[in-house]
Give the backbone structure.
Amino acid sequence: MDLASRTLGGSVVAASDESFGVKERLVDPAEPAFVPGTYDLRGEVVDGWETRRHAGPGGDWVIVRLGAAGRLCTVDVDTRFFSGNHPTGCCVEAAVLDPLADPTGPQVRWRTVVEPAALRADSHNLLCVDDPHRYTHLRLRLRSDGGVARLRAYGEVIPDPQLWADVTVEVSGVEQGGRVEWCSDSFYSDAAPLIAPDRPRNMGDGWETRRRRDIGPETHDAVMISFAAETDLQRLEIDTSYFVFNATSEVSVLGTRDRPDGAHGWGLVPFDFTVLPRTRLAADSRQVFTVDAAGVTALRVQAFPDGGIARVRAFGRPTPTGIRQLQERWAASQRAAA
């Protein structure tokens, strides 16, 4: 999951310069585009952040507030469509800040999470992060001036356990550490939007599979969604908004109380009890179902026989074991900062 994405609430809060391309483009969830020969008052129109020439020995910089705080694993400094004007290199720093704090202030303790690295032109530049700490902000420091199309910060959300205490939580949501672990098909669109925090915007903002030709009584597509902590589920929402003529006809939802053993992944985890029996769905509609399933760690949503689903939302309360799991992850991320 891209923790910096605007879809998740990410924001570009400061930059040293944005003479040719505005900084807010960095966290746009859309892929970058470029039409050569198109000009405005700033020069040739670019889809990204681009600074003026001759930044000086310190280079340029930009600061991004993550949409959801978490542990980083990979940063993508995407320079697509920037070739003769791409930066020569960069490093990445991170910090933990209050949303109201001044991220440019001298009191901010920035920690280097990616050492200086060269950047390729017109490319995805994937930079690995080996740091277990939970961060809220990133600072991309360029060795020079130049342009970057997108900045993606891939990682794992680490929710604050205090925010889960004594309340019902959308445990499937990416903001709360939910993850799409697997799907049977992603021919038309990826399954990741199923757990996005916002309302779907069009038919492309959801999960749509190819048309199955091997249709039988049990033929179906499926997707697995894991939770950050063990939860007693109380409600499910299956949203088929914008899928009018190609919505999934029926769903069933299975649950598990297990997790992968670390060697085999989710493929061998048994989804061995029913959370929602096979149920007919309305097209272009949000349907809410009351459920009662204790100690659930993940769901397998089965779509009969194929089609489109925009969102899946699972609501519940963490079990005592779930709260301990959250507290342990939180404590480990805090110790890493010491």
In short: The longest strand covers residues 221-239.
